[in-house]
Amino acid sequence: MKLDWHRSHCGIFKSGRGNSICLILVALLLSSCASSRSDRIVVGSKNFTESLILGELLAQHLEANTHLKVERRFYLAGSYICQQAVLTGRIDMYPEYTGTALTAILKQKVGGDKAQVYQRVKSEYEARLGLTLGPPFGFNDTFAMEIRGDDARRLGVKTLSQAATFAAQWRAGFGYEFMERPDGYAGLAAAYGLHFAVPPRVMDLGLLAPALKDHQIDIAAGNATDGLIPALDLFVLEDDRHYFPPYEAVAVIRQQTLHQHPEVAQAIAELGGKISDREMQQLNYALDGQHRDVKDVAHEFLRSKGLVH
Amino acid sequence: MQANTVDGPVIEFCDVAYALPNGQPLLSRLNLQVHRGETLVLLGRSGSGKTTTLKLINRLLNPSAGEVRVNGAPTAVSDVIRLRRSIGYVIQDVGLFPHFTVEKNIGLVPRIEGWTAERIHRRVEELLQLVGLEVQMASRYPHQLSGGQRQRVGVARALAADPAILLMDEPFGALDALTRDQLQREFSSLQRRLNKTVVFVTHDLREALRLGSRIALMESGRLVTVLSPEDFLRSNDPLAAAYVRAFGNGLDSVANRGEP
Amino acid sequence: MTLLHFLLQNHDQVLELTLEHLWLVGVSTLLAVLVGIPLGILSAHWPVWNKPVLGTANIIQTIPSLALFGFLLPVPWLGDRADRLAILALTLYALLPVIRNTYTGIRGVDPAVVEAGRGMGLTDGQLLLQVELPLALSVILSGVRVAVVVSVGLATIAAAIGAGGLGEFIFRGLAMVNNQLILAGAIPAAVLALSADFGLGWLEKRLQPR
To answer: Which residues from chain C sit within 8 angstroms of residue B155, using beta carbons?
Structure first.
C-alpha cells in the first residue's frame, strides 16, 4: 500500500534526481573540457582582413616554433566578443589595438603617445584582468587622412597642419563612423582649424579610395594600413599635432596561458616590431585586392622575415 | 478556557450574521444549538443560507457578527487547523485527491497527525469495512471508483481521525436515486453505531425526515423553525407546511426512519 | 568535406560549445523555475498579484532578445561577463511560460479537492505541497518545456555578445560565408531543442493526474 504513494510520486523523484545528476555531469564535463586543452592553444581574431592576417601569423609562428597544437577561432565579431572569449579562456590570445583596448574595453580617455598608451593598457590588463600584451607588431593602424600622391608632391604637403591651408579649396569625403564619432571629424577640424568650402561628403568606406582617385574628393579619412594606399598611390598626411590616438597592434594573451606554456611568450616576442605600416598595407592588399589565401600570404611573410623555414 | 464537556451544546450559534465582502447579507441573527449525538438537518432551498451556516462551524467562513462556539470555545480564538482536524467534512463533489489511492486519501489527516504507518493501515481497513467497501479498494485510485464508492471513501476519510463532529453538505445529492437510498440507510445505521454529532445540509425533505433527529428549516438567511421529524410533518408553520405539501405522497412511510 | 566529417574533425570545439550552450540554458531555466514557480503560486492564490506579475513577464517577452542583450551590456557587474548577462536575459525570457503555466495549473485544480483539503484541516503549506503542486505538475512542466525550447534558440543569439555556445559557429560561419560552420552550430542546436521538447514532453505525460 505504501508503494502506491511512491509510485504516484515516482515520476517527480526521478526527474528531480535526474536533473541534479545531469547538472553534475555537465559541470564535470565542462571542467574536464577546460583541462584537456593543456596541449593546445586557441588563437582568435576579429572579422576583418587585418585581424585575420595577424591571427594567422600568430598561429603559424606558434605552430612552427613550439610543440603546441594551435586551434584557430577566427571571425569573432568584434572587440567585446574577443574580450569575453579571452577572459573566460575560450581563446588564449587574439590581436587587438592599444587605442581600442584603452577606450572600448578599459573605457578610459586617450592621451599620451604610443609608448604611454601601450604601458597603460599593459599594466591595467595585468593588474585587473589576468591578461597581458605582447610587444607591438610594429605598425600603427590609426586614422589616416589621405590625399592623392600627385597633390602631395605638387603642393609639397606632408603634414596635416600644412594641408589645412589648402582645406578651403578641397572637398572631403568621410565614412559614417568618422563623421559621428566625437574623436572623428569634429575633433580633427578643431585640432587643425580645418575649414572646407562645402560640408564633407559621407560615403561608404569602400568607395572613398576610388572617389579620391577619380577627383570626386580631394581628401579622405581611411585607415593607415589600407591595402589600397600604395596600390592607388595615395599619400598619408602626418598627424603632427598627434590628434589621433595610437592604435598599435598587439597580441592580447591570458597570463594563465603564459604560465602553462612559457615558450609562447618567447615566440610572440619574436614577432615584435616585424611589421611596418607599409608592410601591413601590402599584406592587406594581397587579401583584399589580389584575393590570395591568408595561409599562403602569412607563410610567405614569415619566411621572408626568417621566422619560419 | 475550559472546554464544555458533557452537558452543554456541542455547537452553538449566538446571534451570528454573515455578509459577503460586497455587503450582501447571507445570514442574519442566527441562534442555534446542536446537541451531542444528534443529527441536526439544515433544510432549505438554494440561497437559504444552510451551506453558509455549515461552513461557519469549521471556519471555512468567518462570521460578520456574533459568535460560533464549538465545545464551548469560540471558533474565532481557536486554532483553525486543530478545529478543522477535529471535525469531519463531507461535500457533495467529494473532493477526493485524484493522485492518491483510496488508502492515501483516507489516511491523509492521520499521516499529518503523525500516526504510525501500521496504525494508519489498520484504521483504513476498519473504515473501509465500516462504509461497506472491500478492503482491496484501498489500492485503487478515485477515477477507478463509481460515484457511490467515491462518496463512501469521502465519508471514511472524514471519519479517519475519529472526530466527534461530522459536517455533511448534501453528500448524496450527486448520486442516482438507488445509490442515494442505499447510502442513506447505511448512514442511518452507521450513525446509530458511532453516535457522532452530525450537521447535515439538504434541500430534500425526505432525506431530512429519514436522517435527522431534528430539522432546522431555513429561508433567506433566517432560521424559521427547529422541529423533530414528527412535529415537522404536523407543523402549522406556513413554510414547513409548504415543504410537506411539495414533497407530497410517500412521506408517511419515510417518516418510519427507513429500515433496511 | 561533409558536415559529418567536419563535426568529427572538430569534435573538441563542437563538444565545448555544446556544453557551453547547455550551461546557459540549464542555469537560466533553473533560475526561471526557482523564481517563476513561487510567483505563479503567488498570483494563483492572491489574484491581486495576477495582473502585475503576468503583466511584467509579458512586457519582458515583447522586448527583442538582441535588444535586451545590448541594453544590459553597459550594466556594471553584468556587462563584464557576457555569460552572466546572457543567463540573466534567458532567465527573464523563460519566466513568462513558467509563471503562466504555474498559475494555470494551480487554478486548474478541482475546487472541490481544494475545499475538501482545507476543510480537513490541511495548512496552506500542506495543501500547496501535497495537493495543488502535484496535481499542477504536468501543466507546470509543460511551461518549463516551452521555456527550455525557447532558451535553446535564444542562446544561439547570445553568441552575438560573446556568451559562447553553438551560436558562435553560426556567427563565425556567417562572417566567413562558410555554410559548414553555420550548420555545425545550427544543427546541434536544433537537435538539442528537439530532444528537450521530446524528453520533457514524455515526462509531462507520465506526470499527468488521472
So the answer is: none
State the cell numbers at B172. 448524496
C158-201 pLDDT tens trace: 998 889 899 999 998 888 888 999 999 999 999 999 999 999 99
Q: Which residue has the cell 448512514?
A: B187
**Least Cα separation, residue B122 to chain C (angstroms):** 20
- Report the SS3 class of residue A92: coil
Distance CA B163, CA C180 (A): 73
Among B56, B57, B89, which would you mutate to test the C interface (most chain C Cβ atoms within 10 Å of its Cβ)? B89
Contact C163 A84 (CB under 8 A): yes
pLDDT at B33: 95
What is the tens place of the pLDDT at every residue in A256-296?
A: 999 999 999 999 999 999 999 999 999 999 998 898 999 99
Asked if C131's CB is within 8 angstroms of B97's CB, the reply is yes
Per the DSSP assignment, residues forming a β-bridge with B202 are B43
Measure the CA–CA gap between B115 and A97, rounded to whole angstroms.
74
A131-133 and A143-148 beta bridge pairing: unpaired
What are the φ/ψ torsions at residue B89 (nearest 5 degrees)? Answer: -135, 120
Per-residue model confidence as pLDDT tens digits over B54-99: 999 999 999 999 999 999 999 999 999 999 999 999 999 999 999 9
Amino acid identity, position C87: I
> Which grid cell is B85?
482536524
- The cell for A49 is 582582413
Phi, psi of C187, rounded to the nearest 5 degrees: -70, -50
Which chain B residues touch A if contact means CB-CB below 8 Å?
99-101, 103-104, 117, 121, 124, 138-139
B·C CB contacts under 8 A: 64
d(CA B247, CA B208): 12
Q: Fill in the DSSP letter of residue A128.
A: I
Would the CB atoms of C82 and A9 count as touching at under 8 Å? no
Query: In this complex, which chains have at least 3 CB pairs below 8 Å with chain B?
Result: A, C
Per residue in A30-63, pLDDT tens?
Answer: 554 444 456 789 999 998 899 999 999 999 999 9
How many CB atoms within 10 Å of residue B142? 21
pLDDT at B221 over 90: yes
Q: How far is the alpha carbon of B108 from chain A, nearest alpha carbon, in Å?
A: 11
For residue C209, the chain B residue with the least C-alpha distance is B99
Coil, helix or strand at residue A96: strand
Query: Alpha helices of B142-237 — where are they, by DSSP H?
Result: 147-159, 177-194, 205-211, 229-234
* Mean pLDDT value across chain B: 91
For the record, the C-alpha cell of B63 comes out as: 462570521
Q: Given CB atoms, is A70 within the 8 Å cutoff of chain C? A: no
Distance of residue B59 Cα from the nearest chain C Cα, in angstroms:
8
The C-alpha atoms of residue A35 and residue A25 are separated, in whole angstroms, by: 16
Using DSSP, state whether C84 is helix, strand or coil. Answer: helix
Is A2 in contact with B117 (Cβ distance < 8 A)? yes
CA distance A7 to chain B (A): 10
Give the amino acid at C92: L
| Contacts C162 to A, Cβ<8 Å | 76, 80-85
Long-range contacts, stretch A104-111, CB < 8 angstroms, 24+ apart: A104/A79, A104/A80, A105/A79, A105/A80, A110/A183, A110/A245
Q: What is the DSSP letter of A125?
A: I
Provide, rounded to the nearest whole percent, the portion of chain B with pLDDT above 70.
93
Q: Residue C164: which of A8, A75, A90 has the nearest Cβ?
A: A90
> Which residue, among B70, B76, B45, has the nearest Cα to B221 in the 3D structure?
B45
Indicate the SS3 state at residue C145: helix
Q: How far is B122 from chain A (nearest CA, A)?
A: 12
* Residue B136: DSSP 8-state: G
Separation between Cα atoms, residue A7 and residue A248, nearest integer Å: 68
For chain C, what is the radius of gyration of the CA atoms? 20
